[in-house]
Amino acid sequence: MTISVNGEKKVFEKEQISVRELLDTLQYKEGFAVALNTTFILNTTYETTMIKEGDVLDILAPVQGG
Amino acid sequence: MSHTDMIDTQNDKWILEGKEFDSRMMIGSALYPSPKVMKEAIEASGAQIVTVSLRRQSGGDKGNPFWDIIKSLGVQVLPNTAGCHTAQEAITTAMMAREVFGTNWIKVEVIGNQYNLQPDPFELVEAAKVLVKEGFRVLPYTTDDLVLAQKLVDAGCTTLMPWGSPIGSGRGLMNPYNLKAIRKQFPDLQLIVDAGIGKPSHAIQAMELGYDGILLNSAVALAHDPVQMARAFRHALTAGRLGYKAGAMQERDMASPSTPTIGTPFWHQA
């Protein structure tokens, strides 16, 4: 499947993977939050939330702000 | 904070969204020449509330030095929804911020115009309604529109942050009349001038209008000496607040001598 992560295309052999699997694969450790198709995903649901073909993920972390 | 400043503020704690603060300044964490200067400027400002944001980040165990510095300051963080153009974007960003930053405070910013970064009033109210119901402490960045202020209060906001002038413009208070009207109409709200402050005198003016606090960033970060400017703003807020509490004299159209006229010597008797 092909998905978008932070605006970049990512290709996976599997038909679907959990958010947790994706985060582990991309080596996200801590200090971030996830939105799937512009909807916030609670960190307690990473294992049960599945990512499918065409999904769009945004993974955000703290930055400077005014 | 010096001993003198403590005397000035000890009986004037700022209760904002259920928390107590000595300083009435909120300061941004962006645009500083370096992380070191940012840290020193925030400390020099005396601010106990610091705005932060969220942006995309790639994977890998790189850590987050910026966030480590902010955490080390022991301040209340105020995440913003900068860059959002719809209520839904702001709601999603707020929820992500609550998880990352561990606070239910959110500066809701929904931009409606790219030229002056003016808030979109309709999307802002919609976002505020949803986020208040979701348990957030919503601090909306708004225009100085009186009707919009009422709509935000109706949505459940107890703090409003009207602009002084467009973000980053440094133009000060463009419309003191509107800011005054909001203050007069909502005496019990916490009111903060957010955006457009360029100089310490602008902050004094806002505080003299009876505003409860100031949110600024560019004015300090883009100063030639950000740390010195942060210190200047700290004093400006104290001066403006004390001036407001002291009650300014009435303006008069005509001059009125301050030196006694009784006993004026010979030079007017010819």
Main attributes of the structure:
heterodimer; A: 66 residues; mainly beta; five-stranded mixed β-sheet; two-stranded antiparallel sheet; 1 helix; globular; B: 270 residues; alpha/beta; eight-stranded parallel β-sheet; 12 strands
Q: What's the arrangement of strands in the largest beta sheet of chain B? A: 5-4-3-12-11-10-9-6
Global geometry of chain B: globular
Helix/strand/pairing class of chain B, anyone? Answer: alpha/beta
The succession of helices and strands of chain B, N to C, reads HEEEHEHEHEEEHEHEHEHEHH
Uncertain residue segments of chain A = none
Extended strand count of chain A: 7
Characterize the largest beta sheet of chain A: strand count, sense, and whether it forms a barrel: 5 strands, mixed
State the end-to-end distance of chain A.
Answer: 38 Å
Query: Which stretches of chain B are low in confidence, meaning pLDDT under 50 for 5 or more residues running?
Result: none
Mean pLDDT of chain B: 94
Q: Determine the strand fraction of chain B and express it as a percent band.
A: 15-25%
What is the count of DSSP helices of chain A, taking H or I runs of 4+ residues? Answer: 1
The global form of chain A is globular
Rg of chain A, alpha carbons: 12 Å
Strand content of chain A: over 45%
| Oligomeric state of this protein | heterodimer
Overall strand count of chain B? 12
Strand order of the largest sheet of chain A: 2-1-7-4-5
Largest beta-sheet characterization of chain B: 8 strands, parallel
